[in-house]
Write a structure and sequence with these properties.
Distance between the termini: 17 Å
Low-confidence stretches: 123-132, 253-258
Organism: Nonomuraea montanisoli
Strand content: 25-35%
CATH class of the largest domain: Mainly Beta
Radius of gyration: 21 Å
Number of domains: 2
Protein name: PRC-barrel domain containing protein
CATH architecture of the largest domain: Roll
Number of helices: 6
Mean pLDDT: 78
Amino acid sequence: MRAREIHAGLHLLDRQVVRASSGRLVCKVDDLELTGDPPYVTAILAGPLALGPRIGGVPGRLMVAAAELLSPQERPEPWRIPMHLLTELGSAVEVGGDPEEPALETWTRQNIIARIPGSGTEEASREQPARHERSPAARLGAYLDKPVLDEDGTLVGNVADVRLRQDGPLLMEVQQAFTVAELIVVPHWHSRLFGYERGPGGRAPKLVSALIRGRFAAARLVAWDQVETSGPDGFRLNVPASRLAPLTDLYEPDPRRR
């Protein structure tokens, strides 16, 4: 059976996160935490401390500065929802269990709401587990828009999305365990993908599908094992650009490349 594959930007980022039991909104997926090599998605990150760095520029820095100023934490961190709490990935991301409350909401409940007589928060405040500091982890948002150079130093393009593959060995109790499988690289840094260019069409308008696929004819798939180094300045590959698969391999696989 083929492993499930999703595209982080298309299927995860900015999606609503809801409780599986009630359908109530929890947050939105502002970024994804990555650990290991190859990188695995270990948590959903939410809140301004997750969204700000992903947005970047002046708006992103202002968002982070405001969140850090208001945070009661000595070292503010994004709201983190471990992947083992995810129960379903669809039009919304469903989570079970009891996601840890964001630090600012915890501080507000314990220091303001709990002091109001009859608020009923006294017991809940005592039951909250202590927060543990974590070592900084990579974020998927840091991959997006980064330049990709082939082994000769020639610019291939910029990362437009990241393809994730469900990984059985790490599943255990984690139903939604995903590893970074491929980078989707487009030749124009300002290009945005829409979804039509990543499938056989189906219900997509033929004219729209043809136009978008024509625009992304030079887009390439970079397998993670083709990445030599990665960092703040982008990605360096261990193969020439001519060895990279075209984006059409997503729906028209070339057996010669397999």
